[in-house]
Amino acid sequence: MSDDIYAHDAGLAIDPFGMSNKNLFDSVLLMRGGNFRKAVATAEATKSGQAADSGIESATDGADEASDDEAAAAMNLFKTVRPNIVQSIRAFRVADLAAEAQHLDLHFLYANCAQAQTKAEVLERISTSFLFPKNFGKNYDALFDSLTDMVAKAGPQPGFVVVLEGLPAVAKFDKEARETLLDVFREAAEFWSERKVTFRVFYSFA
């Protein structure tokens, strides 16, 4: 993925995690056209095993049920991923994670940090991409609060899939800085685990 998912709609940013008609995933993607949305749609269609001809019907009701079960199993990318975890993205594709979040009606949060060089720039990328309020404090305490208490106060949450792509591996954002950032997300995962809400974070380095 070469560019960010940004959302600049002031109205949406007021209560991005509130219980509205649209999932945050949908709201963000609506503000971004083109290839990413097509990739998500393609990934979702491929994993759900849709027939090329939608008019084709299964021979028996039993076959229909088996097909549905297989599609459901195929869709669940997270069957081997703990519900509250921070891990390397490894073989997962961002578009597949986004499609799975949409399928499960989870919040999908994505930030591409590849162009960032410092802690301040990384936090700026995250806060802008995640639709944090404009008064976001640009520090780790503020990041934790924005991922936890601020969201919890907005009402019941369905769960989260978070992607941090291209975290910088440079002198100004060294290994210690990267681990400190990821620790914030680990603490957020624990926060949501205590509330029985899934919070999966996938990251990669630039």
Brief account:
The protein is α/β, with parallel strands linked by helices.
Structural overview:
The chain has 206 residues and is an alpha/beta fold. The chain has a domain at 21-31 and 79-205: Barstar-like (Barnase, Chain D, 2-Layer Sandwich), CATH 3.30.370.10. Helices cover 45% and strands 13% of the residues. It has helices at residues 10-14, 24-30, 35-47, 61-75, 94-103, 119-129, 140-147, 149-152, 175-194; strands spanning 84-88, 107-112, 160-167, 199-205. The longest helix is centred in the last third of the chain and has 20 residues, at 175-194. It is globular. The model is unreliable at 1-15, 19-23, 25-36 and 50-63 (pLDDT under 50).
Protein traits:
disordered N terminus; single chain; four-stranded parallel beta sheet; alpha/beta; Barnase, Chain D; 9 helices
Helix share bin: 40-55%
At CATH level 2, the architecture of one domain is 2-Layer Sandwich
Order of helices and strands, N to C?
A: HHHHEHEHHHEHE
**Beta strand count:** 4
